[in-house]
Amino acid sequence: xxxxxxxxxxxxxxxxxxxxxxxxxxxxxxxxxxxxxxxxxxxxxxxxxxxxxxxxxxxxxxxxxxxxxxxxxxxxxxxxxxxxxxxxxxxxxxxxxxxxxxxxxxxxxxxxxxxxxxxxxxxxxxxxxxxxxxxxxxxxxxxxxxxxxxxxxxxxxxxxxxxxxxxxxxxxxxxxxxxxxxxxxxxxxxxxxxxxxxxxxxxxxxxxxxxxxxxxxxxxxxxxxxxxxxxxxxxxxxxxxxxxxxxxxxxxxxxxxxxxxxxxxxxxxxxxxxxxxxxxxxxxxxxxxxxxxxxxxxxxxxxxxxxxxxxxxxxxxxxxxx
Length: 322
Prior knowledge:
CATH superfamily of the largest domain: Medium-chain alcohol dehydrogenases, catalytic domain
Helix content: 25-40%
Number of helices: 10
Number of strands: 17
CATH class of the largest domain: Alpha Beta
Mean pLDDT: 96
Largest sheet: 7 strands, mixed
Order of helices and strands: EEEHEEEEEEHHEHEHEHEHEHEHEHE
Radius of gyration: 19 Å
Structural class: alpha/beta
Strand content: 25-35%
Number of domains: 2
């Protein structure tokens, strides 16, 4: 099969490799499309010390070779039986297990779910990791309700676009931050009420002003270095849900305002098969579609990753086959 593999030094090569041989309980999927995530960049840069060469990619949709079923792939491998957190064997597809930058991928059969029929192959491939992350962050860890205000940092990323759509679908009030007026406007089209420029002025104060001094009940923070600002913008009893560190891995936070106002920092990564089934039900009920920024052929994975580091809005995908 044709695949893109990461080699030493972070080089991505489009090359011929052996077809995957699935162990018992696994299945091979003939991929039609694959979705990109920031995790792919970290794998390619060697941030995660996985053995190389390695096929990256966590998201994909295609045809299950043994049954002919059209499927979307859940990237959470070996979650386990505890819904609170994954077990010790948990991993994310695309490192160390070969992922979806390929014509074929082998995954556990219980990670294959029916493709939403109203979604294209590209849309279905763009859905799993980011939508699952957004759902678990908002609903499971953030305990979002229709009475809440959700604040989503960084409008335009894959997770944030799904988070806006899911929070709006839940009936919550949705606010976003961005350094771009255009991205704020697009987030409003997806269901946000308003947005605030984090590169201009005091955005936590702007959130407080917009909520009558109350703040946001759920804050989604994938930046990391913004924890202190997120805590300021959170309401009394609010939940700051953390799932990334794009701005850095260290931060200083004032402790007393957190415990004196009953605020919580909550960590999350990915989600369980139960969570993914819930995401798919919501997609079917609302009939909303993933926001796709651009699509590249599999052989142009390097260009696709370069787009992922640039000024994009929504998901970037690879077209693998017709």
